[in-house]
Amino acid sequence: MNIDPSYILALSGVLFTLGVLGVLIRRNAIVIFMSIELMLNAANLAFITFARTMGPATEGLRGHVIVFFVIAVAAAEVAVGLALIVAIFRSRQSIDVDDIASLRG
Amino acid sequence: MSIDLILFLGIALIAVGTAISMLASRNAVYSALFLVLNFITVAALYLLLNAAFIAVVQVTVYAGAIMVLFLFVIMLLGTEEEQVGKDISWQTPVAVILGSGLAAELGYVLLTGQRDVAGPLQAVGPEFGSPASVGRVLFNEFLIPFEITSVLLLVAMVGAIILTLNRRKVSP
User: Fold this and answer.
1) Reported pTM
2) Average model confidence (pLDDT) across chain B
């Protein structure tokens, strides 16, 4: 594929913004979590695009390695985050983030 | 308008459409399935950018393992439907204003600054982004981070088990 990389970066920016909107608008904790995954994905897309602009040298492949690490860390994050959501649901019977306000002064 | 651009615009349309559908669905299961579709379209984009290994990892790990975990938890908790009518009235407008502000800033940075940091897409051979070449960089330059990541996954696994452990049976 040979197009202007700023198009792909713009798509990455749009996806990131949609993820931010999801975190701000939705109240279901699981959907908020999925929006965070969308943001990670948008950042990965920017990494892969910049990797292609570096040319065939190994400098470009470092971008791929970083994306690999991001995916691995996202997997760990999802495991712990979903465990937290399950624990919160057990004690409160709800995962609506507006209901989780017991720390409010 | 080149064939590459048409291909990209099609994929971008699907990616943005699925992302918006994910936000708009009231049912969390639909949101998760739209996100799977979004991940797969982004994986197709990775393939077009010569990132074959990352594209396959994206499909297997993200669209496969992680989203199955999400669907499993959604169905386990039975919280598909969001209660309606409890919205804070100013939440959505403020979120849209802040989001469009972020989009405007991102657009400005991309349109003005991108050409200074990165040139156009380079022509690369089929070797670029293959599992062998990515693995060579990963194990030559990033061996310690790789090992730390494995420890991180182990800690996350232990943490998830500890967090969901049902202690009520032990101390009634």
Assistant:
1) 0.90
2) 87
